[in-house]
Each structure stands twice: as structure tokens, then as C-alpha cells.
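Task: sequence in, structure out. Protein: Mitochondrial ribosome-associated GTPase 2.
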Amino acid sequence: MRAPAYAEMGAEGEKKTVYLELKTMAHAGLIGFPNAGKSTLLRAISRARPKVAAYPFTTLNPHVGMVVYDDFEQIAVADIPGLIPDAHKNRGLGIAFLRHIERCTCLLYVIDLSVDEPWIQLDSLKFELEQYKERLSKRPHAVIGNKIDLPNADKNLKELEERIDLPVFAVSAKKRLNIEPVLYHLRELYDKYSQKKGAGW
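Result:
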């Protein structure tokens, strides 16, 4: 009836409170301390242009860049804010933003080679990831030693390689040195683990 001639008593409406949580969709996540060079690395491997500056916490929100390969495959890489020791105790920016790497196929730990005892950075980063979600640090990952062009970086690189079982990709994101091996390895991780994403994680 286009013009109904009667009306009925309506029922009481329903109320719902819905909480939405945004999680960035990316295949790989860049993990590192503030000023480790994550944003600079993302700029070097993609067309993304996150803010880069010489002070901590320049990245306040995740940025995603697309790495495009010759066969037109594209891998999304997320740059998330820097972690610091005891971030799970709400130091720095906390760890809530780690939700943006929950869906990542693999992780790329970016280590500042200009700082003495760089293996401590890696241990701290893995510990903070575990505080957020168990086994998150166990995802397939690679270690990128950044700032190889700075003094003492060669010495720190050797010490880091002696203390971990994984190869370290030594790069200078700022000068774009040795970037290609990182891209090749990223593709290997993506091809190997993309089908297993979510299985047991």
C-alpha cells in the first residue's frame, strides 16, 4: 500500500555498542628502535614517503609501502612506530600499535649498527613482541643491520653476526647501499610463507 490506512504499535528498539579495531594489511613489518632507520628503509624500497627526522618517534602511525618486483608481484611493507625497552609497561608509545603486524607474513628487524652491542636491540624487540602476543617474535623474520656507513658499524656488525644464528643484511638505507639483497630475501620469505600465513599463528 503506497498510502497505508492503519498503523501498529512499534516495539522498543535495540542498542549496541560496537568497537572497531583497525589493523593495517601488510605482508611484512619493520620492527626496530626509534631512529633505527625503518622509515628511511621504507623510502628506499618503495614509493612510500614517511616522515624522516633526527629525533625519536617521528613515526606516530603505521605507513605502508609497496615493493614492486619485475614479475609485477607486489609486497606490502609496514613501518610501525619505534619500540623501546619496557614498551609493554607503556613506556614510549607503548605496544598497542603492534596489532598492525599481527597479520604480517614475516618481520624485518631493523638494527642500528652505529650503536654498541646491537644484539641487545634484537633481544629487546623480540621480548616486547612476546609481551604483546605469544609467538609473535617467532614469525619468519630477517635481521637488517642499518647505518653500515657510520663509524664502528663494521665492528658492531661482526659482533652481531657472532651472537645470532641468522644472516645479517648490512645496509645503509640513507645511501641506499646493499638494498637489493634485502629485496631478494624479502621475496623468498614471502613466496615461502605466504601460503602458511595464519596457520598456527
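The helical segments are 38-45, 119-132, 153-163, 179-193.
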